[in-house]
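User: quick one, sequence for these tokens?
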């Protein structure tokens, strides 16, 4: 492996007045397991593209390594998985892919199935196995592989990457980074820093630097205040002495104007020296806090329902036709509680959330197993678009209605429940922020203020949302939810693509306002911070719980 020298790197996108990078220099080693972190929109993916030579940079990256980028673009997902791998890496060696899959504790029979029948987590791990089956000389660029991975899959991938070397990993999961990187490259506000160690080591060093900068800043503020006061005194003395040159007599003699002028000039010179010192101190102070992360507090406006228990499920089984999706499930959500649905991909977590949304439009809580909800085609994608209630009787439910979600068990949900929903998918976001705010009937001023606190620049406000990064789109949905007054906040994997600093802001917000929440999230440290009570789902419950303990 070799070292990569980055010298005086500058880059800005065409038509933008802001630099993504401006005159930055550092070096890295291609044998490292390097974690790349930074706020959304600050240039993580841009830096990977610069390394690959896809973008023209001002400066130099020498030598430019041979890179491979993850995730792969899969053009024909309906083909067999082995054929998809051939499409991504022509001439790949099957036995090497099988070896890598075994290291991730995966069954190689997946390779014989159509790619689109694999879960998102299975697709990610199969493509990672392909990535690491290539030449050892390749420098691997891995961009956010943990999105949509459940806890067990994150454990497997984290342990797998911890055995490898020679890659840059972009991730916003603190536990995941701690387990598989040995260096951190951080894109801060005004600089890029390289730190040996995992994320926790970098965070501790960052806090130490920030604290030292704040203390130095306070010291300089006191020094500047003292210098200003001394300067005013010197100028006052000089002017008072200057006035004694005329119109006064001392012992009947005329004043020595030359001597008085000389003394006044000396005092004024000292005042000017103090002024220059003060200007230098001010300049030093101005640059001191440029890289200090001081996230502003967010606000939330939760409503308190008159009923203490908002939702209770007892032995609930949800099915599509004759196929059971999840259950039997027992859970309850009360005012001020945070409840997280946990479990492997495909165990029905999102289905439960969508069913809560469906029931919220009814006049009374659902009790018993005799009711079926059929959503309009549009409503299947977005439950907030409206769900039609229909009662078809026990006989029809026994046969199963294609496309319908049927419920067996006791579903008791509070009447008049106002819900704010954040979906997984962000691809539907189009057009301007102002149009979006108007469609969602939220306060435009509050919406912009929240986005600013989530580190949106004012330049971003004028761009169409199609040009936003995935993380920025997710923040749009989170800000929209924060603008809404609700009894229950339902968030489906809300932190996918969201940077570490914003995650801390959101966790602090939830702890401070204590809203009632039902969410699906795989970031263990975030769930611990907000005090979420975990409800485990799926057949792999014991395995997942074990994975959480290891994490």
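Assistant:
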């Amino acid at each position: 492996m070799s070292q990569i020298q980055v010298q005086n790197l500058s880059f800005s996108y065409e038509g933008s007045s802001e630099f993504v990078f401006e005159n930055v220099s550092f070096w890295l080693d291609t044998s490292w397991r390097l974690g790349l972190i930074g706020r959304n929109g600050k240039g993580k993916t841009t830096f990977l593209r610069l390394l690959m030579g896809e973008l023209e940079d001002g400066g130099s990256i020498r030598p430019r390594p041979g890179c491979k980028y993850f995730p792969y673009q899969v053009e024909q997902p309906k083909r067999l998985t082995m054929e998809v791998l051939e499409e991504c890496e022509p001439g790949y060696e099957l036995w090497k892919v099988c070896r890598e899959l075994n290291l991730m504790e995966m069954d190689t029979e997946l390779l014989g199935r159509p790619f689109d029948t694999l879960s998102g987590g299975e697709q990610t791990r199969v493509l990672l196995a392909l990535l690491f089956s290539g030449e050892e000389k390749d420098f691997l660029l891995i961009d956010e592989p943990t999105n949509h991975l459940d806890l067990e899959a994150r454990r497997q991938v984290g342990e797998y990457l911890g055995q490898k070397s020679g890659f840059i990993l972009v991730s916003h999961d603190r536990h995941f980074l701690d387990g598989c990187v040995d260096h951190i490259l951080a894109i801060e506000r005004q600089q890029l820093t390289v730190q040996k160690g995992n994320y926790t080591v970098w965070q501790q060093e960052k806090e130490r630097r920030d604290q030292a900068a704040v203390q130095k800043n306070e010291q300089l503020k006191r020094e500047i205040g003292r210098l200003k006061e001394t300067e005013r005194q010197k100028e006052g003395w000089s002017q008072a002495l200057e006035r004694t040159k005329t119109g006064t007599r001392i012992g009947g003699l005329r004043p020595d104007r030359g001597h008085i002028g000389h003394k006044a000039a000396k005092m004024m010179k000292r005042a000017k020296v103090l002024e220059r010192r003060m200007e230098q101190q001010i300049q030093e102070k101005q640059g001191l806090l440029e890289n200090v992360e001081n996230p502003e507090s967010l606000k939330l406006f939760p409503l308190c329902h008159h009923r203490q228990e908002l939702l209770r499920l007892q032995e609930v089984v949800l099915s599509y036709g004759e196929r059971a999706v999840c259950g039997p499930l027992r859970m309850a959500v009360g005012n001020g509680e945070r409840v997280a649905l946990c479990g492997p991909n495909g165990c029905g977590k999102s289905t439960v959330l969508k069913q809560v949304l469906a029931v919220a439009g009814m006049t009374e809580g659902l009790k018993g197993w005799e009711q079926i909800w059929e959503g309009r085609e549009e409503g299947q994608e977005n439950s907030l678009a409206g769900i039609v209630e229909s009662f078809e009787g026990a006989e029809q439910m026994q046969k199963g209605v294609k496309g319908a979600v049927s419920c067996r068990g006791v579903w008791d949900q509070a009447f008049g429940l106002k819900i704010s929903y954040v979906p997984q998918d962000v691809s539907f976001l189009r057009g301007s922020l102002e149009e979006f705010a108007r469609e969602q009937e939220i306060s435009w001023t509050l919406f912009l203020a929240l986005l600013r606190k989530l580190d949106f620049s004012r330049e971003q406000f004028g761009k169409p949302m199609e040009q936003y990064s995935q993380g920025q789109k997710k923040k749009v949905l989170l800000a929209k939810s924060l603008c809404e007054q609700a009894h229950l906040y339902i968030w489906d994997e809300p932190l996918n693509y969201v940077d570490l600093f914003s995650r801390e802001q959101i966790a602090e917000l939830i702890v401070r306002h204590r809203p009632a929440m039902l969410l699906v999230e795989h970031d263990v440290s975030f769930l611990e911070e907000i005090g979420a009570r975990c409800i485990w789902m799926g057949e792999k419950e014991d395995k997942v719980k074990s994975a959480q303990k290891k994490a």
